[in-house]
Amino acid sequence: MDEKVIDYSWLFRTLLVKGIIVPFRAAKSAEAYQTIWSEEKGSPLIYLTYELRNALQEQVSEPVVVAMRYGKSSPKDAFDELMQKEPQLDEVIAVPLYPHFAMSSYETAVDYAKQIHQKNNYPFTLDFIKPFYNDDAYLQALTENMKPYLEQDFDHILFSYHGVPARHIKKSDITGKHCLQVADCCNVPSSAHKFCYRHQCFDTTKNVVERLQISKDKYSNSFQSRLGKGWLQPFTDKRLEEMPAEGIKKLLVVCPAFTSDCLETLEEIAIRGKEIFLEAGGETFTMIPCLNVHPLWVSALKKWVQDNSENSKMLLKNY
Description:
alpha/beta; Rossmann fold; 4-stranded parallel beta sheet; two-stranded parallel sheet; 10 helices; 46% helix; 9% strand
């Protein structure tokens, strides 16, 4: 029912969610989760996020807590926990774990946390780490995480990003006339790129392949997890079906939009995506894991938090 995810009127959104999505997709989602569920740990997204929290906590003295946009722990739970640990708390730095800006991920997480912060009159300031799709520390972690998998024989690397409706791209265009309206819009400089998910995804790929020295004929981009028509193309599942006929038999897939492995990577790509590719004539299929708790990823988070804190102190000093 999040209006930044399903951006229709409340009435139509209610009919869509309660009349179609929940009745017809809930059982399928439950079945999909069963294929990746850990009897000991539960949901991979949850336990991997807490493992990341623990790894970061080992490197910083400030308390680190987890908040989920939906479910537990909520931002309020996280804020209350921080206040209990640090009654004199004067600043909280929130790190939305989305490399790229999208209204259905980064924006809704930030806006919701701001609402909770304001509604409950917490005494601390709340700052956010910006999308880090082109940050050197993120890119270094991503490339180093990929390197071991490039040692094997492969024909192609598919960069599969989470899909969003094309209308979201247009809605986020602060110029109102660039995204998906100008030819080759993602490569034409524009202030719209600051909030353009599509451009930021392509920019991540561009930076990674340059660092890894991967030739243009050895990689491509696609978008997964689509619901309905009008979503960003090309679609990952369609490309997986088409590639073997194009001579791509040995495939690597990486999902840079996700920092922790979850349903969309472990089930949609590593299980269903692999089946699609092999049934279409592919020979080998390897999904490169997300960053999860890679040491360089933890170091990147540490750097951003410390840099943000230092900047805050400098601003206060200058003021």
